[in-house]
Amino acid sequence: MPTIVNDPRRLIALEAAHNVRDLGGYVLGDGRTIAWGRLLRGDGLHHLTAADLAALAPLGLRTVIDLRTPGEVDERGAFPTDRMPVTLVHQPVIDTTWNRDDVPRFADAEHPEVEFLTYAYATMLAEGGTRFGAAIRRLAQPGALPAIFHCAAGKDRTGILAALLLAGLGVDDDVIVADYGLTADAIERMTAWLQRHHPQRADAMAETPSAFLAAHPEAMQRTLDAVRRDHGSVGRYLDHIGVGAETLAALADALTN
C-alpha cells in the first residue's frame, strides 16, 4: 500500500461516523497534490454529535453531497444543516439499495465477494453514470469546496465517485484502490458502534451477506480496468457522463490551491 494512503491525517475520527476520510495528499497526473481539508469522503452523517460537528468545524465545509436514496434519507435523516450551515445537495446515484434476493450469486467463483462487487459496480456505473457526473460537476463549481460526499457506509457509491474523480485527475490506480480498501477497517468500527448504540441495526447488519459489506481492492481495480476497456480511458467515460476536460481542470485547480 502506498505510504501516503496511511497518512495519519487521512482518517477524521468522529463519534457517530466511522468512514470519514480526507482525500488530501494524493498526487494528480500533472504533479500537483490535493490539499488537505479540501475534499472528504464519508459514510452516513445523520447521527453527528456535537463533538463531531466541533471536529469538522475547522474545515469550513461549504458543500455536502448525499449520494443515498430518497428512502434512506427519509428513514435515517440527513446532515444537520441546522447545526452547521452548508449547502446540502441530495444526489442519489441509485434508486434502491441492494437486496439479497435481487442480485446474482457467485458461490462457485474463486473469490465470490470480488465477483459480486465487480458486478455491482459495473451495474452502478451503467445505471447511475450521469448522476455520478452531476456530483462531480457540483464539486467543481466555484466556491463548492471544502466539501464532503457520502453515502451510508462510505464504501460503494462513495467509493465509485472517489475512484472516478481521482482517476480522472490522474491519481495512480494503486493509490485509488488502496484508499478504497481502507473502508474494511471502517466497517469494523461501524459494526462495533452499532452494537453499542443500535443493537437492532447491528443484528440486521449481521444477517447481511458478507459481499455487501466487503471492500476488496481487487474489485475496484477491476472496475477501473473495465471502464478503460469499454471507453478507452476514465477520461472518456467521464466525458460520456458529462464531465469534460474543462470541469476536471477546474476541479484540479480548486483541489490544489
Give an overview in words.
This protein has one domain: Alpha-Beta Complex (Protein-Tyrosine Phosphatase, Chain A), CATH 3.90.190. Helix content is 49%, strand content 7%. The chain is built from eleven helices and five strands, in the order ββαβαβαβαααααααα. The chain has a five-stranded mixed sheet, covered by helices on one side. Helix 4 runs antiparallel to helix 5 (173-181) and helix 6 crosses helix 7 (199-206). The model has no long low-confidence stretch (mean pLDDT 93).
CATH superfamily: Protein tyrosine phosphatase superfamily
Spell out the helices and strands N to C: EEHEHEHEHHHHHHHH
Count helical runs: 11
The CATH architecture assignment turns out to be Alpha-Beta Complex
Key phrases:
257 residues; 5 strands; five-stranded mixed β-sheet; 11 helices; Protein-Tyrosine Phosphatase, Chain A; globular; 7% strand; alpha/beta
What topology does this entry show?
Elements: E1 21-22, E2 39-42, H1 50-56, E3 63-66, H2 70-76, E4 87-90, H3 112-140, E5 147-150, H4 157-168, H5 173-181, H6 183-197, H7 199-206, H8 210-213, H9 217-231, H10 234-240, H11 245-256
Parallel strand pairs: 2-5, 3-4, 3-5
Antiparallel strand pairs: 1-2
Helix pairs in contact: 3-4, 3-9, 3-11, 4-5, 5-9, 6-7
